[in-house]
Design brief:
8 strands, Cyclophilin, 287 residues, eight-stranded antiparallel sheet, disordered N terminus
């Protein structure tokens, strides 16, 4: 279960995730994914009639020499991110360029919520700062091929994808059993959320532009750090550097199960929190 019934994520700015809810209510594609696909802006590349996750591309392997991001987190290590310019052109351009400019270096993850996400990219460290390479908000749109599975990288916003800036989050989320999905839920998305976990209720509302392919164990460790009443880490979690690099053919470790020690710890933590709470999962990401 998530830490709060309603979480405001502050920002200025082949498998994937499915739409989810908690308790006895089944996950339905009409709750957010298909409706959101119909209401997103002109920057959205998805077919408005195609539910999110009909085809999931989050786990498309990068080609050797392809541009990737290597984010080094102080005292933790490297988190490596595949980018999807074919589905999130403006989102990738913004993130890559900010990384090249050193914008993210020495910034913090200012908001962390266990079994939900880790959020950073604000130079103020408050959730109220940051801007895009265009000096203002930008519309990154959404694409139905990219969903909110664990390890997905997306922009936080203040009500729509037209308010993206520099702040981003990396999904952790939780896994969902098959009986929580509606009968008409896209099969590819359902399998992705059952295997990887995530935050499917965010699909269609935020610009997903990347996926962690190595270092997901670090993301899962970070979600367990001690935080204050505003979900800010008590001890700063610092992005030491964010570098644009080329994929060198290294191992692809998309799933937390690929990191056995972290997977066991995360599963135990999730089970304990689930047993201790009966709050429905209705978290949102907004400025």
């Amino acid at each position: 279960m998530f830490k709060k019934a309603a979480v405001a994520i502050m920002c200025s700015a082949m498998l994937t995730a499915s739409l989810a809810s908690c308790g006895q209510k089944n996950i339905s594609i009409s709750d957010s994914s298909s409706n959101a696909a119909q209401s997103t802006t002109s920057a959205t590349k998805s077919n408005a009639n195609e539910p999110f996750g009909t085809e999931v591309c989050n786990y498309t392997a990068p080609e050797e020499g392809e541009t990737v991001i290597i984010m080094t987190i102080k005292d933790y290590g490297d988190v490596k991110i595949k980018l999807f310019p074919e589905y999130a052109e403006k989102g990738v351009e913004n993130f890559r360029t900010l990384a090249e400019q050193g914008y993210y270096d020495n910034l913090t993850f200012h908001r962390i919520i266990n079994n939900f996400m880790i959020q950073g990219g604000d130079p103020l460290g408050t959730g109220r700062g940051g801007e895009s390479i265009w000096g203002a908000k930008f519309d990154g749109g959404t694409d139905s091929h990219l969903i909110h599975t664990a390890g997905a990288v997306a922009y936080a916003n203040s009500g729509s994808t037209a308010t993206n800036g520099s702040q981003f989050y990396i999904v952790t989320g939780k896994k969902y059993p098959e009986n929580q999905f509606a009968a008409n839920y896209p099969e590819a998305a359902k399998k992705a959320y059952m295997k990887a976990g995530g935050t499917p209720f965010l699909d269609g509302k935020y610009t997903v532009f990347g996926q962690v392919y190595d270092g997901l164990d670090i993301v899962f460790k970070l979600q367990q750090v001690e935080t204050d009443s505003n979900d800010k880490p008590v001890t700063p979690v610092v992005i030491e550097s964010m570098k644009v690099a080329k994929y060198d053919g290294g191992a692809l470790r998309w799933y937390i199960e690929d990191y056995s020690d972290t997977a066991a710890s995360s599963e135990a933590s999730t089970q304990a929190k689930t047993e201790a709470s009966t709050q429905p999962e209705t978290e949102t990401v907004s400025e």
